Amino acid sequence: MPSVKDLRERIRSLKNTQQITKAMKQVAAAKIRRAEQAQKEARPYADTLSEMLRDLMASVGSVDHPFMKPGNANAPHGVILMTADKGLAGAFNSNIIRAGELFVKANPQVAWYTVGNKARNFVRRSGHADRPAWALNAPSKIEAAREVAYRVTDDFVSGAISNITLISPKLISMLSQKPETRTLVPIARQAQSDADATRVESGEARGAKGAVEFAPSPEAVLSRLLPKYLEFTIFSAMLETDAAFFAAQLLAMNNATDNAGKLIDELTIQMNNARQAAITKELLEIVGGAEALVNG
Questions:
Q1: Terminal CA-CA length for the chain
Q2: In contact, 123 and 81? CB cutoff 8 Å
Q3: Which domains does the chain have, with CATH numbers?
Q4: Counting CB atoms within 10 angstroms of each CB, which of 148, 179, 275, 287 has the fewest?
Q5: CA of 135: how far to CAs of 52, 83, 171, in Å?
Q6: Is there a contact between 144 and 237 (Cβ–Cβ < 8 Å)?
């Protein structure tokens, strides 16, 4: 059985750890509010861009843009794997990496593009240390997203990759964050048609198609918007990854704080029992010594 001194040291260490987890919990709570605010500020631009793309896709006959054409079928899949830069967030990063591993099992030929240090480390352990990587907590997320979009676009247009797939977390709620795998390029016209049909059924479609005139032409405008679509989709995923990470970290630090409190209570009971046992033993030794003196 551990001594009273050992138990007291363990309790002191747990209390120090509990203070750290409480502080990290408060930091995560503050940062997730800022991340959610950044998402809200970016949402109007994303909604407007998506709506304009849907209208243009429905009004043009054909667009001579690489994003609308199939990629090189013999080239590997281009996968943007997006995780956080740090850990201490439960299974958050592991779940995203597991989704990447499942994608590799289904598609053995993969060219990685990683955003986040945890994703970069995973790819390096897989033997692809020379693959391009970006940090999630870059000084400017929009600049980092633009660099990622330029790199994957160049590789797709040159035929180095067959498509552009994004694996990133989706923030479902404060208690749930799940990895999501979606193909960004090539853009399927059928998917746009399905989106339009959904909007019509839900009553969200506004006005007749082609009511807006574009200059010089809808095809030219769409060709300019498609790169912006990819860039902003990556930027939006980075914002959501930030928010999902802090939500996962908040939950993990809250659980760690509660578990530390339970361990402190259990060790305190053990320490009190050990101290009482030591006192009882000393009393028995004193009584036994006194009786020996009397009988002697």
A1: 35
A2: yes
A3: 4-23+252-295 (1.10.287.80), 41-250 (3.40.1380.10)
A4: 287
A5: 31, 9, 20
A6: no
